[in-house]
Amino acid sequence: MLTKIKSNLLSARIYFPEVILFDFIIFFILFIFIDNTYAILWLLIIQIILSLIMLGYIGKKRSLELDEIKRIINNIRKSEYTGSDEIHLSKNLSAIEEDIKKMFEKTKSDIEYLKRLERIRTEFLANVSHELRTPIFAIQGYIETLLNGAINDVKVNKYFLEKANTHTLNLNNLLNDLIDISMIESGEMKMSFRYFNINDYLQTIVNEFQPMAQEKNIELIYHPTHEKLQFFGDKNKLRQVMINLIQNAIKYTEKGKVEVLVEEEQKFGRIIVRDTGYGIPENDISRIFERFYRVDKARSRAVGGTGLGLAIVKHIVEAHGSKIEVKSKLDEGSEFSFRLKK
Ligand code: ADP
Q: Closest ligand 1 atom to the C-alpha of 173?
């Protein structure tokens, strides 16, 4: 009994200063208005006893409430709740119940986010290892064949060396794309925005791809826009976007043409890369920006694809506050476009 009273009083100790101040004021009032010292003393004793009873009652309530909160926190720590609707506190704690529920939901979504990140990271590592293994095994195979005698066979030795060389180039492309992706995702990609003449810029990039298009007998056309048109963006990073889009358009087009054009809007301009290629199945369109996602793995590898190009494009375009859009019809062609500020 005595220990219970003691613990209740201890629970209410944060209110001691207020109660002592209150008792002191009462004592002061009694001292002014009552002449009789005995009466003052008795009233004061009664006042102190009442104060102790009140403190005991408050302390009891407080420790019950604290126990209730502790129980909920312990249950959360032991992961005993699956949803915030399972968390219940008594009526007088309803204000804190809402906060605990919000905290629970936030922690739950943070944990789910971290788990998702971890899953993505593991998947990414598995993909990287797989992608590295393919060209390395191929190079190893060609070199071993050469060492086992094929080096002296003039009919095949050059062919094997060329094959090994192609895989070395693919490996190099993959490593460059991986460096870009890791720079972007670690936030190390520094952007440098300024106005530049879009006409000269696109013309130069398109010219660089004329040999690649000619080799495949594809017409590569740039439709010039008006001479003075200026766009706002990071020229170097956008060059990477354009190279990727034009390269893909040529890579995934068997016959016909690839066009690059600019459509002017009021405050923006839209850069469009259009082809008459294989097109992309509707279900795959939303996934082609994922790292290592390819509609046709064999076809992508055969043309030296890494599966990372569009993931990089998406990041760079989004860093310009824009969004990459795709329209595509299977066996008819595709159109990739994004807006830039004028
Ligand atoms: P890759 O290195 O494989 O080209 P990307 O990230 O650049 O990787 O593209 C992802 C996939 O999207 C490609 O493998 C291809 O299947 C598809 N794709 C991209 N551009 C085109 C296009 N212009 N026409 C058809 N398919 C395309």
A: 2
